[in-house]
Design a protein that fits this description.
Blueprint (H helix, E strand, L loop, with lengths): L7 E2 L7 E7 L3 H12 L4 E4 L14 E2 L10 H25 L10 E5 L2 H16 L5 E4 H7 L9 E5 L3 E2 L2 H15 L2 E3 L3 E7 L2 E7 L4 E9 L20 E11 L11 E6 L2 E7 L4 E5 L13 H14 L8 E11 L6 E4 L5 E5 L9 H14 L45
Parallel strand pairs: 1-9, 2-3, 2-12, 3-9, 5-14, 12-19
Antiparallel strand pairs: 4-8, 5-7, 6-7, 10-11, 11-12, 13-16, 13-17, 14-15, 15-16, 18-19
């Protein structure tokens, strides 16, 4: 592995040719870059604020079991693989970064508040058991025994001890520190357009005018991944922004633990969850809104979250409200990520993780690093190739590492930023 030089690049000081350029510095871009650098690749990230993005708004539920939805059974396999890797991944990352990620093996309790919700939860439990998942049905009384602050109207629930949590903000900070220690070069600017040379992705032009050449490019821009100029229209990922509003409350230090585990429910058809942190923070979320690029925190969104949470845990309204935020999840047509090579040689995708970005961080980093280093996508990631949305679909092609000895030239294809 090359020795780190300057972790933050500035004009005239940084090497401009890389083995791998990652566009996007959220948790997916960061883990991809960190793992690539560990494989000995000269790696750079282009992002004006690495460590930001959807991770700053996410709750951090590692819920492979309770997030199971009908029609997403293929995604379940990837989620379970990543969840299984999380403890070792966390230990390695915390050692590499010197930072705590807030990982907690506390389990999850999904509850029902009325007869309809109970019937729905029973169906989910049957589906979980069909796939051999570890999930235990509890009566309402047993739920309240586990979490005494639950409302008396709770009719039953599912105890899933294997669904854990982490703190996405601390996770992002740890990944950023690990990248810097591994020698990843940070270009604190956004990629304005992809460079294409001889029908191959060859780097990017940043919005400050800097040109970066790279043997391989990974587009990991979250909900913005479909807006990069220079990417051929038939290669642009079908990723859309899905708005989520989230609240953070504070449990006063004199109060005993408000909740011992993540609690979630469906209230009047809307999903609500409460994620307790060890530091006394209580994360409450989250709305799911198809409103384009709007990130406004609305009174209605805050009201609905507090109203539904109050029905679930009445004492919630006595806690101080310390933060309201809205962010954009990167949604895909089938709610599953796009991982691997595109039809444009040299351009790979790591985006479209929707509500599972934090959960899929370990497996995404492993898969993308393997692809960048060897040209082969691991078996567990192959069902999620971007080519599944191309005419005919099909498995991901081999796309071995390319030489980066020749920098991008003026022959690079440049297009205007789409609206």
């Amino acid at each position: 592995m090359h020795a780190p030089e300057d972790s933050t690049a500035s004009a005239g000081t940084a090497h401009r040719t890389y083995d791998a350029l990652v566009i996007g510095g959220g948790i997916i871009g960061l883990v991809t870059a960190w793992r690539a650098a560990q494989r000995g690749l000269r790696t750079a990230i282009a992002d004006p604020a690495p460590g930001g993005g959807a991770a700053q708004v996410a709750a951090g539920m590692l819920a492979a079991v309770t997030e199971l939805h009908y029609g997403e059974e293929t995604l379940l396999g990837l989620n379970r693989t990543s969840a299984h890797r999380y403890p070792a991944f966390t230990a390695e990352l915390e050692e590499a970064s010197g930072q705590d990620t807030g990982y907690r093996a506390c389990g999850t309790l999904a509850v029902a508040l009325d007869a309809d919700d109970r019937a729905h939860l029973r169906e989910l439990h049957a589906l979980q058991l069909r796939y051999g998942l570890d999930s235990q049905w509890l009566s309402g009384r047993e739920c309240r025994r586990l979490e005494p602050l639950l409302a008396p109207c709770v009719r039953g629930g599912l105890r899933v001890d294997g669904d854990h949590q982490t703190d996405p903000r601390r996770l992002a900070a740890a990944l950023l520190a690990a990248c810097e220690r591994a020698g990843v070069v940070l270009h604190r600017a956004w990629a304005e357009r992809l460079l294409v040379r001889r029908d191959r992705a060859a780097g990017a032009v940043l919005d400050d005018g800097t040109e970066l050449a790279a043997g391989q490019v990974v587009l990991a821009g979250g909900s913005r991944s479909g807006r990069l100029a220079g990417v051929p229209d038939d290669v642009l990922p079908p990723v859309r922004p899905v708005k989520g509003q989230i609240l953070r409350l504070r449990v006063p230090g004199r109060i005993a633990p408000f909740l011992s585990r993540t609690v979630r429910a469906v209230v009047r058809g809307g999903h609500v969850y409460l994620v307790p942190r060890e530091n006394g923070e209580l994360v409450l979320g989250a709305t799911s809104e198809e409103l384009g690029w709007d990130t406004t925190v609305t009174a209605g969104g805050v009201y609905e979250l507090l109203r539904d949470a109050h029905e679930l845990v009445p004492g919630i309204t006595e806690l101080p409200l310390v933060e309201t935020r809205a962010g954009l999840r990167p949604g895909s047509p089938d709610n599953a990520p796009l991982l691997g090579p595109t039809a444009l040689p040299g351009l790979h995708l790591a985006t479209g993780h929707h509500r599972n970005g934090v959960l899929l961080t370990p497996v995404t980093g492993d898969a993308m690093a393997e692809l960048l280093a060897t040209g082969e996508l691991p078996e567990e990631a192959r069902p999620f190739t971007p080519l599944r949305f191309s005419p005919g679909g099909g498995p991901a092609p081999a796309s071995g590492p390319a030489s980066t000895n020749t920098p991008a030239s003026d022959a690079s294809v440049r297009q205007e930023q789409p609206a």
